[in-house]
Amino acid sequence: MSRQALVVGASGMLTGVARWLAEQGYLVTLVGRDQGRLAQVRDGSLYPQSFTLLPLDYHRTDHLREAMEQLIGENRHIDLVVAWIHQTAPDALPTIQQVLSRPNKNWSLYHVCGSKAWLHPPIVQEIASCTYHQIILGFICENEQKSRWLTNNEIAQGVIRSIQSQEMQSIVGQVEPWDRRPSS
Ligand SMILES: NC(=O)c1ccc[n+]([C@@H]2O[C@H](COP(=O)([O-])OP(=O)(O)OC[C@H]3O[C@@H](n4cnc5c(N)ncnc54)[C@H](OP(=O)(O)O)[C@@H]3O)[C@@H](O)[C@H]2O)c1
C-alpha cells in the first residue's frame, strides 16, 4: 500500500516538496485555499495521479477537522505531514495533530516555522504517535553587509533535506548572528 502524505500550505514555497514526495512514491494531499493554485502544483508534477486537492481555509477549524476526519476515514492513515501554517491560525496544527493521531499509528510531522521560532519556539502538543520535527527558516548572509531571506527553492531543498535526515530540528540557512536578520 502506498504511503500517504499531507502538505499544508502546499502551493507556495512547499510546491517542490509536494512534487518530491510524489516522486518518492507518496500519495500526496495538498491543502491551500485556491484550488487553481493547488492544481498547478499537481499539473507540474511527473506524477499528477498521485495528488488529491483539498482546498480549504485552515482558519475555519470545523472545516479543517471535518476534512482531516474524511482523510483518515475508511481505515486510511497519513504517514507524513509537512505544514506551513501562518500564526493567525493557532488552532490549525493542534486540530490536524489530534485527528491524524486517532488511528494510533505512528506518523511524522515536519513543522515549517519562520525565523522567529529560533528565539520563541512554538508550543506544540506532544502526542505519542506523532514524531515532531521542527524546521526553522532562517536567512542568508551573502557578505559583511548584505543578508537576505531564503528563496522558495532554498526552502524546498532545505525541507527535503530535513525529511531525508529525520532530524528533530533543522535550520534552513542561518539564524545567527541574529542581528543580521533582514529587516523586511
Ligand atoms: N525565512 C525565510 O526566508 C522565509 C520564511 C517564510 C516565507 N518566506 C518567503 O515569503 C514568501 C511568502 O510567504 P507565504 O507565507 O505567503 O508562503 P507561501 O508558501 O508562498 O504561501 C502560503 C501557502 O499557504 C497557503 N495558505 C495561506 N493561507 C492559507 C489559509 N488560510 N488556509 C489554507 N492555506 C493557506 C497558500 O495558498 P492559498 O493562498 O491558495 O491559500 C500557499 O499554499 C514565500 O514564498 C517565501 O519565499 C521566506
From TrEMBL:
Gene3D superfamilies, A to Z: NAD(P)-binding Rossmann-like Domain
Domain of life: Bacteria
InterPro entries listed in its UniProt record: NAD(P)-bd_dom_sf (IPR036291)
Annotated protein name in UniProt: Short-chain dehydrogenase
Species whose genome carries this gene: Brevibacillus reuszeri
